[in-house]
Queue: 2 jobs
Job 1
Amino acid sequence: MTGALYFLALLSSTMASARVGLWGQGRNGTGDWEGKRCTCDAFLPSSTFPVKDLVVIEQTAVEITHKLELEMGKLETYESKLTAYAEKIVNLTAEIERMEKNPDSYTEAHLQDVKVEIKQVEALIVELQASIQGSTTVLESLRVQVNAMVVTLTKLEKTHDKNLVLVTRREYTNIQLQLEECERRHQELFNPNIGSCAHTGIIRVSKPFVSQLNAHLNSGYKYGGWGKDSKPVHGSESMYWYAGYSSPSIVDIKLYADYKNLILRNNFQHHNLQSGWTGTGNNFIVRDNTLYYQVNNPFSMAKLNFTSMKYDYRVVPKASSRFSYSHSYSQGFDFAADESGLWVTYASEESGGRLILAKINEPSFGIEQERQTSVYKPGVTNAFMVCGVLYAVRTVDIQTEEIFYKYDTNTKRESYVSISFERFQETFANLDYNPTDQKLYMYNNGYYVNYHLWFNHTTKATDESPALLS
């Protein structure tokens, strides 16, 4: 590819020189024809292709690929070590149980041998933990580099001939896929807490992980969402979905077999909702292969099962269409899913625009466990559920969002918190938590963005105050 880049640079330079000569003959040129000299005002084009930027990206891609190969090799080593450690622990446990049942059958020397083996396993575990932490740091560093690459490539595509960036874009996509696979395997190996609610809530949100511009490759598709099925049917655990529009009308949705196909824009299903199923708003989700979303005629909750293609809707008498999120239009219902089930938030005239949280009975598609909060919905940018706790988000400044409020349905208590996180672009339309990987998925001004979450697994919350309603 370096030879091709050199040719592009040479061609670009030659074309620029040619333009200078033509400009001099036809415009502000002054000539000394006897001396065969000519002077002119030269205006070099500002759109000369920045080959240096592509060379830097190419070199970075090679470095990242090499590092990823090393990390993938480490993961294989981790897997074999974990298997060996688990076997050692099982054998030691069985041995200790036998000793407890019949202590007189073992000598002091035998006891010392068992103690040595326990110390060895402890040392191996400490060693593995250090290796895991090192890999996590490397993966986070690589993610930062990949994000920088996508920003540069997007800029080049907007300002120059896209065909010249195509080869590098393919290389970048391959790197993204390798990094995603490496992170996925790392998470599966070393995050046993997926699906667990043995914590007291969110304590930190990661930097934004930007996948790419939407499947339409158009930043004008500001409305919509993306993510994974929060309760996938068997065989669809890796499935992703995407729906993006230029207005807040839900007219179709695309399903992708896995992350690779999402990035390559290769959907295996495309459902058109315009035949009487059109919805409105942005905070829709996919759960159990079913789309949950809002419709306006009549104003109600709706669902469409992709397996049976059965459509259903429910009017919620108290819900009002007059109260929406601060940066979202026509967002009366906001659907959310977590480890404990399916939820919906809305506001009513009776509540004065304050957010109401309700559990959805999935078989009957009915409302239950309705709770009113003290949060005024038009002052909120979005909300999501984690382990039965509602988290509300608001804008701090042009780059920052803040989780500022939570309502715990388990204790029926609310509290105010301050957990800031960064947006990739200024506005976003959709923010939802997925319990299958404990990530936040944001549709941020046309870009696929996600965040890792950190939870407090060690201490009890102390900042809670009674909620308005129990």
Job 2
Amino acid sequence: MLTTWLRRRAVPVAAVGGSLLLLSLWLVPGDVAESQNRAEVEFPAVSPQALTEAETFAHVDRALRDRLGAQVPVVHVAGAVSNDVGMSPNSTTWLGEGREPFFAVDFIYPCRGNPARIDAVHQQLQDDTAAVQGNGAYIVYTVAPDKSSIRDEELGVLRDSLLNCSDRVRSAFAGWGEAQDFPLITLWDRLEHADSSRQGRDDGAYYFGDSHWNADGAAVWTRALLERLVDDGVVSSSVLSDLDETSTAPGEVVIPDLFRNMGLTETVERVEKLYDRPGVTTTTDTVVNSAGTTLTHKSSTSAEAELVPGKTLILGDSFLRTHAATQLAPFFADVTFGSLADYEDVADYDNVIVERVQRNAVEPGWPDFAGVIG
């Protein structure tokens, strides 16, 4: 039986052993402050027995603190190994201590954002802001936090290494949010507060089996955005009074994305949280932009309730589509929703709002407004 057990684990053992050997030879030191003041922690010896022990992963965690370059391959390898020993169903998901799944890419994609890349993103967002504002329009950006960044306590002893790069991205955007050298809404503190009261699996601010926020999580952004629009003089504070009156409505029934990646077929109904705005009528149609893409367009009218005036373009990813667009629509007189790639006609809008998830925030793919407006 021992021989069979060893044979089944020969591939992951070889993968880990080979990866750690290569990493020990070729990794560049990370820019963690303490790495310059003490010897690097050695990687642990690898054996089939070691792969079943939590201390092995904790030891790898300590070694990784000095080796930023190790982040991507080790998350891949550890994900595959944890799958093999029954800790995780596959290498695309990471199961937390409460068996809650998280996207492994939360821990990988941010590592591509080295200091030069982060600086380039910062410069682009400043340049794009200047281009939009120079065209006479309003603009504001938002980063939607990853669930792993909010529920980091679920990551246990590996928390610091798994979120090593993600924390750097968070720190960069948090600093930019404080400096406001381009208009940015940060949501980590607000979402952590909203999520702290969760009782059931899909309570708080995020879904259990999904990487996205639930309706209450989306409502955190809805409120933060409207408060920012009020502060910036785009609309009066009267719109905020309508945030206190809410109702629910049946929503889409889906297999949550992380459950789907794990091969599970359990569904969840994404119940919508709606804001009751007396006298506001909202209609939905579509528009086709100059690139030939069909976008969702919503118009609202009211004889008494205030609406964000002008034409508004809101671009985002799946976090925008998950509850947020539905919540925001009745607050805007004329709003078009698109993906991050649908910015060709940005010069035609009075207000521009951009949302992007944390894990992709330092990846290429931010709208190139300066390139369009010139």
